[in-house]
Amino acid sequence: MHVVVCIKQVPDSAQIRVHPVTNTIMRQGVPTIINPYDLYAVEEALRLRDRHGGTVTVLTMGPPMAEESLRKALTFGADRAVLLTDRFFAGSDTLATSYALASAITAIGERFEPVDIVFTGKQTIDGDTAQVGPGIAKRLGLAQLTYVSRVAALDLAGGTIEVDRRAEGGVQALRTRLPCLVTMLEGTNEIRRGSLPDALRAARAEIAVWSAKDAGIADVTKCGLRGSPTVVKRVFAPTPRAEKATLVDPAGAGAADALIAAMFAARPRLEAELATLVRGY
Amino acid sequence: MTEKFDAIVVGAGMAGNAAALTMAKRGLKVLQIERGEYPGAKNVQGAILYADAVEKLVPGFRDDAPLERHLVEQRFWMMDDTSHTGLHYRSEDFNEEKPNRYTIIRSQFDRWLSRQVQEAGGLVLCETTVTELLTDGRGRVIGVRTDRRDGDVLADVVILAEGVNGLLGSRAGLRERPAPENVALAVKEMHFLPRETIEARFNLKGEEGVVIEAAGTISRGMTGMGFLYTNRESISIGIGCLVSDMARAGHAPYALLEAFKRHPSVAPLLEGSEVKEYAGHLIPEGGYRAIPKLYGDGWLVAGDAAQLNNAIHREGSNLALTSGQIAGETVAELYARRAAPTARALAAYEARLNDSFVMKDLKKYKDMPALLHAGSQNYFLTYPQLVSKAMQNFVRVDGVPKIEKERRTLRSVLAARSLGGLLGDAVRMARAWR
């Protein structure tokens, strides 16, 4: 079995500051971390490997310093790491990123061994789009399993996978054919602490650094800024919303009536809609 | 299979990096283990870097090491609650081609120094804590156990550069934990300000920097000092006092720092700044008499872990770098001779430390820590207040004849500290300084 996990090095959003005057994000000196959602993907991949054998390759696209995040993934126990880095990739939006990653995954499959499952986190904490995973699946023609909370079963011989997927109002149990792409939901597992031999191996590892050409990308106009139709119009810091709270004395008689009256006063449409609903019953 | 290295260095601070770099450069197979997320992540210092010690380790470090400002001015402040009496030394001589002292930010500098270790071939493992030393049946250290699964790793020699607490060495029974009267607890904050503001406030141009060392009522009679260092775009400000004094007096470190920051001599320097960081750290202050055993079968200890800190001159990072380098050289020389790192062979480490400025300086001031500790009320409370009063008497013009003013000053000094007390303090201080 060969699993590829796509990870992204992101600024630690807990430590990002907005410049008080220019309102722009101050990136300088902000520590970087592996996108937290991706850690669930890494752990799920490692668990599958531990159970079924095979290899886990971690892949990232980013500047040369993104190597740190790959090395960390190797410390957790991943077998191989590929860093996709090239000036052609600068300024990629989700369309261009999924194109580059899909190409790299194809190249990884050709160079090492065929890929059975691609894992990603459900989204990144810097872009928050949740588009790159599905974009890769679409480009590679993989079955797309998003918001997965659990891989329930994997039948490598039969070429099928069963997962639990969070959906609105419940959990879907899905079965599909391999190869597939899984985006992992948060809180589904806990990233392991790698063993000392894994940590030593990671510290020594030579991480494969691939250019666009290495990833088999012939048409660099689909990469980076040129391949990205997204345009950033404006960056701004949202002003904090300060809504006034009213205290309703809970002990007083008619507290519930007062509460409802206050809610309807604030949301006149709610009253009308509720009334319609009640009439329906 | 448990892997074996020529040497393991515990810790990636100044001493650990110096030791690891020295050995890696000489071709030893070195493993360095650091508990922080990256080298420097957990390292706290004022921080001032002394170029001489770095130069000996990484010649030409100025070209690419992350340095903040080179120091051209030193201010000593003796403070009472509303004033300070200062001694300022500023010299154009410090604007030299190879400046002597720099302010640094440890998380950046240590990362850079660790890169030198890695480029020299040393293997650096972060986010890994050494939990105990592995020994053979006869007490010889043969490796370390880490907090990771399958976490044992072997080595011919282990250099303990684990920092002031010396937990590992104490746990292994190689030493005692530092006594409360021999360590200071220092807290510091990083205040961010635009560089133009810093340069205007401190009368600096370009990369010039200032150090302020302050003592007096800010430590409330405890043995301790405050400091303020200028970085490029920030100011490091902090205060430290002996742990035993703090425990006895019941003062909280943050309250001391808040009061220091509010002092009328300090507040205007910090005005409008944004606090970005708060850190606390223990500092070895016991001097020569507090130094634990420095070596044994298969192990050496360097830097803060060996309590090598010159509290009088506020030097620590250079003693750490130099002791780490000497430890590394000692091990590398044994390795080159294929000699076993027995306690007898490693005794060369102590001999070489004794020949260096590290031990010579600490020996010179061996009686100072006890003196300052015993007389802390006088040195840190009474005298600063007397000096302030005398200065005010001297400069205030109020129609009182000068002769009368001088009499008042003398009377206040004698009332606070008798003639015998004054002479005794002078003699004791002179003796300890000698």
UniProtKB/TrEMBL annotation, chain A:
Electron transfer flavoprotein alpha/beta-subunit N-terminal domain location: 22-219
SUPFAM superfamilies: Adenine nucleotide alpha hydrolases-like
Signal peptide: none
Top-level division of the source organism's lineage: Bacteria
GO molecular function: electron transfer activity
Keywords: Electron transport, Transport
Keyword Electron transport in record: yes
The keyword Phosphoprotein is assigned to this record: no
Gene3D superfamilies per record: HUPs
CDD domains linked: ETF_beta
Function: May play a role in a redox process involved in nitrogen fixation.
Alphabetical list of PANTHER family matching this protein: ELECTRON TRANSFER FLAVOPROTEIN BETA-SUBUNIT, PROTEIN FIXA
Subunit structure: FixA and FixB form a heterodimer.
Family statement: Belongs to the ETF beta-subunit/FixA family.
Protein's UniProt name: Protein FixA
TrEMBL record, chain B:
Keywords noted in UniProt: FAD, Flavoprotein, Oxidoreductase
Coiled-coil annotated residue ranges, if any: none
FixC-like C-terminal domain: residues covered: 368-434
Pfam family, one: ETF-QO_FixC_C
InterPro entries documented for this protein: FAD/NAD-bd_sf (IPR036188), FixC-like (IPR039651), FixC-like_C (IPR059103)
Top-rank taxon: Bacteria
Statement: the UniProt record of this protein carries the keyword Transmembrane helix: no
Cofactor(s) listed: FAD
Keyword Cell cycle attributed: no
Molecular function GO labels: FAD binding; oxidoreductase activity
Role, per record: Part of an electron transfer system.
Family statement drawn from the similarity comment of this UniProt entry: Belongs to the ETF-QO/FixC family.
Name of the molecule in the record: Protein FixC
